[in-house]
Amino acid sequence: MTGAVFFDLDGTLADTAPDLARALNRVLAEEGRPALPYPRIRAEVSRGGTALIRLAFGGTPEDPDFQRRRRRFLDLYAEGLCVETRLFPGIETLLGRLEAAGLRWGIVTNKPAWLTDPLVRRLGLAGRAAAVVSGDTTDERKPHPQPLLHAARVAGADPEASLYVGDDPRDVQAGRAAGMRTLGALYGYVHPDEDPARWGADGLVHAPAEILKWVLRDGVQAGGRKAFG
Fold it and tell me: Where are the domains of the chain?
């Protein structure tokens, strides 16, 4: 039985909030509105571009200007996709340990592929991830389990022997529905209105190093043998 460790991207593997915040505030400036404080934007990042536009301008996706603003935001973000974005401290060490043990890992995000793929390359993760599944890779997006099940197939992993880590309740919901163990990443962009204890995750971690302890504890398998002995 071969397992893998899968990660959400924004707020779990990479700290993307600075570049997203800069793009959002540029849209606000173009429309003659004041910038939003960084902490308010950071808390909303894991909910996606639609949530960020709603934070900045209010309204709903059906409003005439909503999609125009969203497209402008995404275009500006793409121009500065990886200026201040970095892997969270400890992630590179964690991935190196997984790779050294022969354990596959992958990325499952709701970010569209035209943004995910170049970001993964610039972060130096392309060619290392066993699977990269974006929000438009499959017909469904998280919290539906389809993206995670697709990632497991691509990685050649058994979902029931795998682990999914994310910083949003949708991540936990998707992972559980796919039959995976789940961890809530409290170091990520947990919204202040959320109570991670209610997400139903198998565990909550305050730093990437703690993820390795769960891999060891749960006995995620690599190539037919338990990883790390």
Answer: 4-15+86-226, 17-79
Residue 110 · residue 139 · CB < 8 Å: no
Token pair of 20 as six digits: 């997203």
Q: Is the pLDDT of residue 15 over 60?
A: yes
**Domain 4-15+86-226 is in which class?**
alpha beta
Quote the pLDDT of residue 228. 39
Q: State residue 225's pLDDT score.
A: 43
| Distance from C-alpha of 130 to C-alpha of 105, rounded to nearest angstrom | 6
- Mean predicted lDDT score pLDDT of the chain: 93
Whether the bond between 192 and the residue before it is cis, its omega within 30 degrees of 0, is no
Of 81, 142, 158, 82, nearest to 108 (Cα)? 142
* Residue 10 known to be catalytic: yes
Which CA distances in Å does 76 have to 20, 24, 42, 113, 115?
Answer: 9, 8, 17, 16, 11
Distance CA 102, CA 49 (A): 35
- Summarize the confidence of residues 136-157 as an average pLDDT: 98
What is the tens place of the pLDDT at every residue in 218-229? Answer: 656 544 444 433
For the entire predicted model, the pTM comes to: 0.93
Q: Is 196 helix (H, G, I), strand (E, B) or coil?
A: helix
Sign for the pseudo-dihedral over CA of 188, 194, 195, 201: negative
DSSP alpha helix (H) spans, 60-132: 66-79, 91-100, 113-122
Residue 8 annotated to the active site = yes
What are the residues whose beta carbons fall under 8 Å from the beta carbon of 201, sequence distance 6 or more? 172, 182, 183, 184
**Which residue type, as a one-letter code, is found at position 84?**
E
